[in-house]
Amino acid sequence: MKQGIRNSMIWLHTWSSLILGWLLFAVFLTGTIAYFHVEVSHWMKPERHASAPSDDSLQVGLDYLLATAPNAKNWEVEVPDARNRTLGLSWENYNEERQRRRGPRQIVDATTGEAIDERETRGGGFLYRFHFELHHLPRRTAFTIVGIASMMMFVGLITGIFTRRKLFAHFFTFRPKRNLMSWIDAHVVTGLMALPFHIMITLSGLMLFANTLLILNTDDGDRRGRFGGNERGEQVQPHSTLPPSSWTPDIAAMRAEAERRWQSPIAELQIEKPLSSEATFRFSPQDQRVLTAGRGGRPEIAFDYHGNVIEEAPAGLAASGIQAGYSSLRQLHEAHFADTVTRWLFFFAGVLGTFMCASGSILWVVKRRRKQHGQAGFELVNALNVGGLAGLMCAVGAYFWANRLLPANMSGRLDWEIHVFFAVWALCMVHAVFFRHHKGWVTQLSLGGFLFAAIPVLDALTSPVSLWQALMIGDWLRLGFDGICLLFGGSLFVAVYYLALKDKVGSFSLANLKKALAPRKEEEACY
Amino acid sequence: MLLIALALSLIGFLYFAVTVKKHLQIIYGKKARITPAQKWILHGLGYLHQALALYPCILAWEYQVGITVWVGIVHLTGFVLVPLLTYRPQWFNLLWQICMPGRLCLALTGAPNPALKAN
What we know:
By secondary structure, chain A is an alpha+beta fold. Helices cover 57% and strands 7% of the residues of chain A. Chain A has 3 domains: 1-50 and 120-221 and 319-372, no CATH class; 52-115 and 222-313, no CATH class; 375-527, no CATH class. The relative contact order of chain B is 0.21.
């Protein structure tokens, strides 16, 4: 009986995961990159690269606002932090239509105080959006598709646990050079090791989709008034302002006080009624230590013009247990709270998840290649594997290349970057239909490897700031991106090496590559 | 704090790994066996170390984020051990030298491979 349950679990695991495996891989891959989508955007906007944050950055931002918007109703300065090296400035004028809050109104160089005129790009935001709403599809449809895929993933995870008889024995086991065994081990290890993460990310993903997936639900989640009330039509009298020379609040002291209380650098300063003696200064910190309250998990502190604390709000508390549960899962999924270390840990777990999806699809093929070679279904999975796994990696690489190679002031640039992404993916898919086996893998992995490994070179050639200068000004966001791309490209080349360049005895020669690419007999053609 | 947590968690996983026959034999030779009781003790020590790794995380990140970081660290150290066991078993052997309580407990409750001691 026990055996029966295990077999049925294996069956369910195999087929539920296979159907949408490639979509899951795409979601995992882009979602993992999306942990760093702000950093990716930084890389994709070379105009920002010269900006070097310093202790004076806040003052630089205030000077800019003073010159640009002296009569504004309020000012907002986002100071550079671990994820941003530029100043993000926003302001709201009296009797002006409320801006939709989609990031700051002006990005400013944190050293020189000059406005940065960025190229048009969706940056890391595209990959982030793609991982849950895809592209070229109506939002709701995409939500439903990704939601179903997440459900399949959840089924796959639960059934996956039951396919193993001894959990501990498989925990640390990897047996190399045994083809099917090695793939199974790799799949099991990446799956089991990061199981808590996989369950968390799938469950919270499902929960974020809950509004779409519950079909009888009438609240589609789009109509929530996220951006505050509409104040249009209401005429407000501007406040009286002092001349800039006599407006001298001690902002540095307020900042020091706020940072002393939180033991964390500040992230943001909002000033109501700037340039008046009734001004209020509201700070919020970078670090977030409370997850249950959602985005309200950061404390706030407000000062008046003379530097007295007028309001101090601790990190919010959840209204109820349900809300606490929802907020923590949501926060864990989106990881807005994460500092650098935490973010890397999330990223690492995401990489394991991505690899788990990929190895799952591959081992399906490896397991069946002797028996089913040539059958339509088997060949379809093969083609989808090459195009869906290797092809997508090429597409992501091409997206980064397009970002740097398309002219910066080209019209419709934003769309063209995305067109390149899909065009390369489509080409890889077509290529994969014709070269489903060994040759397809070798070609596409080499292409992907090249696209990623050469990114540091591309970066050095197409950014106004050289890599050496970047090191000098400590631009680790950019150098980190280059480093990870190099590493990833390198690992794709290692895969190519194992597939094509290594012969049976393990020696390495370029002649093997020729052999690998030469037409083979049907029987051998698979891997 | 991060390093302390990483080290504690890695030691915890060493205890789990050593209860698997294959990895036990890396250290104590081909004929090594452990009794179920010893296995439970080693697992217990493993869980204890994982739990201890939580403490520095909470010190550095407070409760809610601390637990998150701890889970992330457990993922990382567990995964690091896999290539280590496959490709560098001698390092595993070296690392086992620092797991004093575990070695002590094995020595007290009967060595896993008596034949090895005689030599």
